[in-house]
Design goal:
This protein has one domain. The chain is built from five helices and no strands.
Amino acid sequence: MELAAQPRALRWLSRLTGALVQGAIALAAAGLLVSLALIGWSVVMRYVFNQAPVWVDDAVGFLLVAIVMLAAAETLRRGEHIGVDLFTDRLAPRAARWAQIGAVFAVLLVSVILVINGWQTAMQSRQFGVVTEGQIEWPVWWLMLLLPLGGALMGLVSVELLWRLLLGLPVAHAHAPKDAE
C-alpha cells in the first residue's frame, strides 16, 4: 500500500511514534556513552591512581536500566527483538501474519502491564521515600518511572504494528534504515 493510501491517522501515529522512539534511542545512546566514559574513568582511577570511585558501578547499573527501557521500543519497531522463528518461518503467509498479530498483541499486553505496575510501584516508592541501596542513594521512584516510560513507548509501537498487520501492510523492518536491509 502506498504511503498516501494509508489512513491519515496511521501516518500521523507512525510519525509521532518515530519521533518519540528516536528521541528515546538518542537518550539511550547518550546513556551508553556516559556509561563507557564512567567505566573508563573508573578503570584509570583504580589502576593508575589506586583510588577507585565506589559509586560508578551503581551509576552504570542505573544507566543500564534506562538504556534497556529506552531502546526497547526502537528495537521492536525495527523488527529486531529476539523471536522464535524456527516454526513461524515455515508457516503459510496468512498463518504467519496471524502469528505476528498474536506476538504484537502479547507485546502490547506486556506494555500495558509495565505502564500500570511500573507507575503504581513508582508512586508507592515515592510515597514511602524508598532510596536505592549502595553507594548512591537515589529515590527508587526515579528509576521505577523508566518502566512505564519504556512500556508506553513499546505500547505505541505495538499499536502501530498491530494496525499495519490488520491492514495487511508489511511491518518487519518497515522503519529500519535503508543500509540495514
